[in-house]
Amino acid sequence: MSKKIIDREDISDTRDDPVDEIDRKILRCLYKNARIPLREIAQKIGVSVSTVSARIKALENEKVILGYIPILDPKKLGYDLLTIIGVRISEGKLADVEEKLAKDERVLQVFDVTGEWDSILIARFRSREELNFFVKHLLAQPHIERTNTLLVLNVVKDEKRLPLGP
Fold it and tell me: Which of 20, 25, 84, 93 could disulfide-link to 150, CB 3.0 to 4.6 Å?
């Protein structure tokens, strides 16, 4: 018997959707090119430029669109090592420690998680020596009990865009 991957349509979602189909079309255009002229978006989706402008402004005001940033190639900037670091933190100190860890520019993401680790860090480093120093510095911090560092060998998928549905 083969296993079926669950389709999104198979999952009922009772939340009110903050965006409609026109907004989704606009977002898809911006995903392809965040610098696309509003006139071009309007032509592609069949609405007026003022509609596109008003919709984008509303999406920004509602914090659906959080910002616009270039997607950089970390390797071309010298950040060849991608790591996933599990951190065990003393009870009651999670928020304080995570706030401090999040300030390090090499730490790209900090997650509260369930399971063996209290927090997971996604971080990039220029060299093994830099990673080594970072991990040893982590372990010397108060309230950090233990770490587990995974070195990413190959990135199969690293998608920045959220699924927008059909």
Answer: 84
pLDDT score at 134: 97
pLDDT digits (tens, 9 = 90+) for 111-162: 999 999 999 999 999 999 999 999 999 999 999 999 999 999 999 999 888 8
DSSP SS3 for 49: helix
Residue by residue, what is the 3-state secondary structure of 79-136?
CCEEEEEEEEECCCCHHHHHHHHHCCCCEEEEEECCCCCCEEEEEEECCHHHHHHHHH
Q: Give me the domains of the chain, ranges plus CATH numbers.
A: 18-71 (1.10.10.10), 74-151 (3.30.70.920)
Which pLDDT belongs to residue 14?
Answer: 45
Q: Are 27 and 59 in contact (CB under 8 A)?
A: yes
